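Pasting as-is:
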Amino acid sequence: MSKSTSRCVDDEAIALTRLKEQLRRRVDDRVLHRTVSNASGACEVIDQRCTEGIDSLILVSDWLMPGLERDELLAQVESAP
């Protein structure tokens, strides 16, 4: 069975809580939902997806975050193996 995961990236804790709640209600229970509070944490998690056997990834990200904006994060995700 393939594994799917969602990653919510935002520097505001309340936004992360609400996003995770919404995804749990609307997306299949077989999807593993995780949150991270910054883009560098998201990059680490995305790098781990290969070692964890994750086949598909749902990424929900705030646009303006300290250190790395969403478009830069998405470019890194797209170039990841």
